[in-house]
Design brief:
139 residues; mainly alpha; Four Helix Bundle (Hemerythrin (Met), subunit A); 6 helices; 76% helix; elongated
Length: 139
């Protein structure tokens, strides 16, 4: 399988990140416009906190620059080593779908138990991707 196929789940995760960033921006502007928070808060993150929905989307943006980094690295490693194959591509696609689910939970009801479960599933997928890649590389 050609390495370029791994670009598809990577691009999907990137689009998901952009979508969450846009939502966070929209929520911030709305909160400022509605007088729920001062625009100055976003300069230094000091002062009265913004509404819950703003915090949720802001936290999710930060999260998308934490765990998914491990996803991007394993994808790039697979591409560089020319080890992209259907199982790895399927795991990558599944990771993006689970992260979409995680974003939906975080941005709506934000129930900790469900969010934690989805997060753990995403970590397991990344772990499987790394184990599979290592098996391919050293088999």
């Amino acid at each position: 399988m050609e390495p370029r196929w791994m670009l598809l789940p990577m691009f999907a995760q990137t689009l998901l990140t952009f979508g969450v960033m846009q939502l966070a921006r929209t929520r911030r502007f709305k909160a400022v416009k509605d007088g729920k928070v001062s625009g100055a808060y976003f300069k230094t993150m000091e002062g009265p906190k913004p509404p819950r929905e703003v915090l949720q989307s802001d936290q999710l943006v930060l999260n998308f620059f934490e765990t998914p980094i491990l996803f991007y690295v394993v994808c790039l490693a697979a591409m560089v080593l020319n080890l992209v194959e259907p199982v790895l591509l399927g795991l990558g696609t599944t990771f993006v779908l689970v992260r979409t689910w995680h974003a939906q939970v975080k941005l709506t009801h934000n129930k900790l138990g469900k969010r934690a479960l989805v997060f753990i599933i995403s970590l397991l997928i990344i772990s499987l991707m790394w184990v599979w890649l290592l098996a391919l590389a050293f088999a």
